[in-house]
Write a structure and sequence with these properties.
Shape: globular
Radius of gyration: 28 Å
Low-confidence stretches: 21-52
Number of strands: 4
Number of helices: 16
Strand order of the largest sheet: 1-2
Helix content: over 70%
Structural class: mainly alpha
Strand content: under 5%
Length: 472
């Protein structure tokens, strides 16, 4: 009996050991198949483990926003209006987090991998810092999606035809808008490869001041009307921009590694350039006149010029590469095209994520366009500002939203103080802007009513005079 018990225990131990080996082999087979560590990817064989992975956690809140917003929109009344804002928050947050993940934090080559040179990676090779090439790819994919949509409905009652451009000036406007818009997006994508989402968003929150300065500069050249200079609004914008600068400096100063700080400086510079490009785009809209294109027309007419504009930059411009990229490729600078070639050779799954960004970008533009045209401009502006503020707060507040560790005292206190004051300043500015627009609309309605009343009185007097003449 003792021999039988020992044999049974030995057999049970062998089975347990075999199960452990099979589990280890399954995990490593998954890593080999996807070329990434499970903790940094949300495409898992096991959905439960995938939902708890580090790569998926930052997407929980945006996906919840998309689900809740879509559900609320099915209810009529004010609930549907709130649902549109929630959906807008989910879509905008998802795109910001997804682009930051693709550009900076997704694992391209996991740590411990032995390179062809024999060097073993100490840290993960993350992201794909090819902002210009990625933006050009997004434009091409969006154009392909549009062609599929266009051809699928062409022979149906739902046929869609892009707006016809009737003059050379309109074609010129579309090309200019397309290039400047693409430059804005490309610079923003570039910056996401070097700085965190929070830093990117707080810099882009300074758009009102940069737009105001751009408009006034164009006005000096007699290309744009002067905007009224209200001391309170200018002060609020200046305070918000100063806080954004303090936040960024504290984040860079709190970085432990000097090479990471230099990469962050490059990312900050590119984010500011993107901000100025966005301001130029808004200012040009006033100078050249709005062409009134919807999202489908924009893709149909601007995708090709934008791609041709970005291609030389993606092919030939060399830039410093962050993180482990110099160690993997043996070069301190690379072009976007060379980065894409290297990523294709190392991990084709990362190329899949880049391609999906084009589809997500097209869908996000449709959601944004639909919301803008169903809500008032003031509500849309409020929603955009709220989304940025909320995402910055969530990134700093929730640990699972933090891809990189935040700096310790005293920098973290400075960061929190700067964020709070920045949000208060630009929220107050947005409130003043919304109040001014409401007053203008109210005055326009009042003036219209007065004109209608005056016209009615004139018509009444004319009728009375005609009656008197007939009586005589």
């Amino acid at each position: 009996q003792a021999r039988w018990l020992n044999a049974e225990a030995s057999s049970s131990a062998r089975v347990t050991h075999l199960r452990r080996i099979l589990a280890w082999m399954a995990d490593h087979a998954q890593m080999a198949h996807f070329h990434t560590h499970p903790d940094h990817s949300f495409m898992m064989w096991n959905p439960i483990e995938g939902a708890m992975s580090t790569g998926f956690r930052p997407f929980v809140i945006p996906l919840a926003g998309l689900l809740v917003g879509t559900t609320m929109m099915q209810v009529k009344g004010n609930v549907a209006t709130v649902g549109k804002l929630v959906l807008y928050f989910g879509a905008q947050s998802f795109m910001n987090i997804y682009m930051g993940w693709v550009m900076r934090t997704s694992v391209t080559v996991p740590a411990g991998t032995q390179l062809e040179s024999g060097v073993i990676l100490d840290k993960d090779l993350t992201g794909c810092p090819a902002g210009f090439a990625l933006t050009a790819m997004q434009q091409v994919i969006s154009f392909i999606v549009f062609l599929i949509f266009f051809s699928s409905v062409y022979f149906t009652p739902y046929r869609y035809m892009p707006k016809k451009l009737n003059s050379t000036f309109e074609i010129f406007c579309v090309v200019i808008f397309g290039c400047v818009f693409a430059l804005n997006i490309a610079l923003n994508n570039f910056s996401l490869g070097y700085i965190s989402i929070a830093v990117n968003l707080i810099i882009r929150s300074c758009l009102p001041l940069s737009t105001f300065v751009s408009s006034q500069c164009l006005a000096l050249c007699k290309l744009y009307p002067f905007k009224p200079c209200r001391p309170v609004e200018i002060t609020l914008m200046a305070v918000g921009v100063i806080c954004a600068g303090v936040f960024t400096m504290a984040r860079i100063a709190g970085e432990e590694k000097k090479d990471a700080s230099s990469n962050m400086l490059l990312g900050v510079f590119m984010c500011i350039a993107s901000l100025l490009s966005g301001s130029l785009n808004l200012a040009l809209a006033g100078v050249l006149g709005e062409t009134k294109l919807n999202v489908y027309d924009t893709v149909a007419y601007m995708a090709i010029p934008a791609t041709l504009f970005l291609m030389p930059i993606a092919l030939f411009v060399q830039k410093p590469v962050p993180g482990e990229w110099p160690k993997v490729f043996g070069r301190e600078t690379m072009s976007d095209w060379e980065i894409l070639q290297g990523v294709w050779a190392l991990n084709k799954q990362t190329m899949l994520w880049l391609g999906l960004s084009g589809l997500f970008s097209f869908l996000y533009n449709i959601i944004q366009f639909s919301i803008v045209h169903t809500l008032s401009p003031s509500a849309t502006a409020f929603g955009g500002n709220f989304n940025k503020a909320a995402l910055i707060f969530l990134t700093l507040l929730l640990p699972f939203m933090q891809v990189h560790k935040l700096p310790g005292p005293p920098y973290i206190y400075i960061i929190w103080g700067a964020v709070i004051v920045n949000i208060i300043a630009f929220s107050a500015y947005s409130y003043l802007q919304v109040s001014d627009k409401q007053e203008e609309e109210a005055s326009s309605v009042k003036l219209l009513h007065e004109e209608e009343s005056s016209t009615a009185l004139d018509d009444s007097d004319t009728d009375n005079g005609a009656d008197d003449d007939s009586e005589e």
